[in-house]
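Pipeline run #58 for the internal structure catalog. This entry was flagged by the ingest filter as a single-chain record with no existing model, so it goes straight to prediction. Upstream metadata was stripped on purpose; only the residue string is passed forward. Reviewer on rotation: M.T. Logging verbosity set to normal.
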Amino acid sequence: MAEIINLRAVRKAKEKAADRAQADANAVKYGRRKTDKQFESAKAEKARRDLDGHERE
């Protein structure tokens, strides 16, 4: 006899897997460690200070 399946449960499981795949892709694309974010902001701040230091009056 055939296995009885709940189509609603299958649909929800498929949507959940798709959402998880999208979340993993976003984590790879946008996710950065806290130290990386701090390094980038420190580098931008230093560049701004250096540019302001070369400003003529």
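catalog note: The chain has a mean pLDDT of 92.
catalog note: Residues 39 and 45 are 10 Å apart (CA to CA).
status: ready for reviewer M.T.
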